Amino acid sequence: MFDIVGRSVVRHPWRAITAWLVVLVIAVLGAFWGFGQGGVFDRLSNSVSLVAGSESDTVNTLASADASGTAISVVVNGLDIDQDAPTLTTFMANHRDAFSQITGVKSVADPFLFPDPTMPQAQALLSNKKDGFIIAVVLDKDLSSSDEKTTTADVSTAVDNLRQDLAQDFPNSSVRMVSQQGMTDSIMSQIKTDLFRGESIGLPVALLLLIIIFGGILAAGLPIVGALVAIGIGMGSLWAMTFFMNVEVFTINIASVIGLSLSVDYGLLMVSRYREQLALILARKKYNPEAGKLPDKDASKLIVRDAMEKTISTAGRTVFFSAVTIAFAMCALLSMKAGMLRIIGISGIVVSLMAVLTAMTLVPAIIVLMRRVLIKPSIITRIPVLRSIVKAVGDSASDHGFFSKLARGVHKRPWLIMALVAVILVVMALPLRDLQMRSAFADYLPAQASQTQAYNTVQADYPALESPTILVVADQFSSQTTNLYDHLYALPDVDYISPPTPLPSDPWRSSISLHLNIDNQVGDQATQIVKDLRSYDAGYDIMVGGPAALQLDFVDSILARAPLALGIMALAVFILMFLMTGSVIVPIKAIIINSLSLLASLGVTSLIFMNGFLGMPKVQGMETFIVVCSICFGFGLAMDYEVFLISRIKEYWNLGLSNDEAVERGLQRSGRIITSAAAIIVAVFIGFTFGDMIPIKQIGVALAAIVVTDATLVRMLLVPATMTILGKWNWWSPKPLTRVYERLRIVH
């Protein structure tokens, strides 16, 4: 198959390029214009529930099926309620109608509307610090989407007018509005900003490193071109997915991170292997570009075609099966109950396949059209200082050098090296003992946004309006839930409890909101309260929801499917590595080593964020879905380097070299590629940490830690050490499996 692909691309490069351009144009138009259906940023969603059908999801559905319309809170701060109450009463009497008269507004309430300021309805809208109040605006529930946007804009205008008038009498006051849609819009705006910022940092750094590696701007630009095309088509694919399923808002950032890194990774390997093949052919035909001895145009055409066909049939085969392995690793997410994780898995699979297909077809097609351009030495190599840098760290076609010396050093003390690296990895993994996980909506809100500040004020100063830690729905009339209310009131750490209230959609059911003075989702205390309540016998059925229950159900759903998910990843790795090596030892060893490397990297990531190291924000817990995605994506990325290294070692083993010699040659040939790819990918990941969204920062740091750990401690030291110790047993497999390998083997 790969020989056919290679011949097709090199003989008809314009067909491949044209096909990619057509697909890219359609995808980009869909992503940013939407063909009248809204672009991808307009169609992304922000789900509250995580596990469909879970108890917390059912409670959320019942609670959100409210008879009223969209709620907007206008948060006023910077006042002295006790002193300013008379003036504010008059002020609001004169300004309340400004909101009530807006078309589409159903009701308006503020604490100065009620005759008695001690009434619960009034107290709920007053800050517990006595420094502000809330104007609660509710829209008609039957408004169309466009009418609701118009009404919301009119409310925003009224808020601006209120702010100006209030400042005349109260110069220290502030007025902000917050709504669910407003917060979603703020998140979407931040996602766009973070996406642009991440790529504007990651791409230039990646290009600079590629220039150093390849010693030329044109060669360096090829993986970047493939990355941009893969990302563009990936965004178009996400847009298409929105018509069939809810795609979470942050999925586009995660897909971009993965697509960009894999595209550069695969493009780097393809271009590097092509340059290696080209150098071999030129040397065989006695051409010396460095000395100015170049083939003519006709000869160049044949040489380039020959080198590229060989590259696609070898390196193309490797990157393809590497991508398939990563795709299978991401398939582990498809086994999860949480729809959000399945969507991330699908998007990861799509961008992985786009990355490898551009590397196998688009990049080679461009190289074929460039012909002699990439044969000629770059102008960079004529500059003394740059020439020295390129020679020192650029891609190399030599069988001997730094990495072969490193391998020989490992051969001398393999047991010591293996023990030291294992100890380091275990120490790195120790912070996982204190790992806390959470799934908090507030973590996605941009810290400096007006909507976020208003939301945080409501959560901190208005107990009656704060998002509850626990929400209990009882299959009983509110007047008959006294025993349940008393039980909830007696729970430890209760900060506020609402009276039983009939559900608007089901009056025979009632709900009680419970606010605890502990974090909604971090730690075992809130989780244990949820478990205890679910086992409590109230004499009638009750369901427990809210953020604490949502986190519990999310984690339980992950743990329930974890064996299947891990089994999928392990099986994918085993099959690929076996088909590449014919050994059952190498895949088993890869699974064990990659798992240890992954745990160590997650331990370091947890340490960084739980303590606010390296300029990262200090958090109370890692986002649950980020931990899961990091495991799947990280395991796949680690396999990239395993494939690059082992495939070259196996190549030399098949040529008849001893085990140690094969390790030395394989590490020398792939070491620069692995470290170069790692440096570039880390630059891409770190670029995305410059955004403001905490989950994207976390996955950027997690994947960077995984890549750094894997490309240094694991591939450069631990793998050579274990292969030295095992010797010829590295390549053992039972005879029946050997026959399978002979029929289906993957040759690099």
Q: Which labels suit this protein?
A:
single chain; 748 residues; alpha+beta; 5-stranded antiparallel β-sheet; 4-stranded antiparallel β-sheet; 24 helices; 66% helix; elongated
Report on the structure:
The chain is of the alpha+beta class. The protein has 24 helices and eleven strands. Strands 6, 7, 8, 9 and 10 form a five-stranded antiparallel beta sheet that branches. β8 and β9 (510-516) form a beta hairpin. α5 (81-100) packs antiparallel against α7 and α19 packs parallel to α21 (624-654). The protein is elongated. The protein starts with a helix and ends with a helix.
Are there runs of 5+ residues with pLDDT below 50, and where?
A: none
Which percent range describes the beta-strand content? 5-15%
Rounded radius of gyration (Å): 30 Å
Mean pLDDT: 85
- Termini separation: 14 Å
- Give me the number of helical elements: 24
Give a summary of the structure in a few sentences:
It contains 24 helices and 11 strands. The chain has 748 residues and is α+β, with helices and mostly antiparallel strands.
Helix and strand topology:
Blueprint: H1 2-11, H2 13-32, H3 40-43, H4 55-64, E1 71-77, H5 81-100, E2 105-109, H6 120-124, E3 132-139, H7 145-169, E4 174-179, H8 180-214, H9 217-241, H10 251-284, H11 297-334, H12 339-370, H13 384-393, H14 402-412, H15 414-429, E5 437-438, H16 450-461, E6 470-474, H17 482-489, E7 494-497, E8 501-502, E9 510-516, H18 524-534, E10 542-545, H19 547-581, H20 585-611, E11 622-623, H21 624-654, H22 659-688, H23 694-726, H24 735-744
Parallel strand pairs: 5-11
Antiparallel strand pairs: 1-3, 1-4, 2-3, 6-9, 6-10, 7-9, 8-9
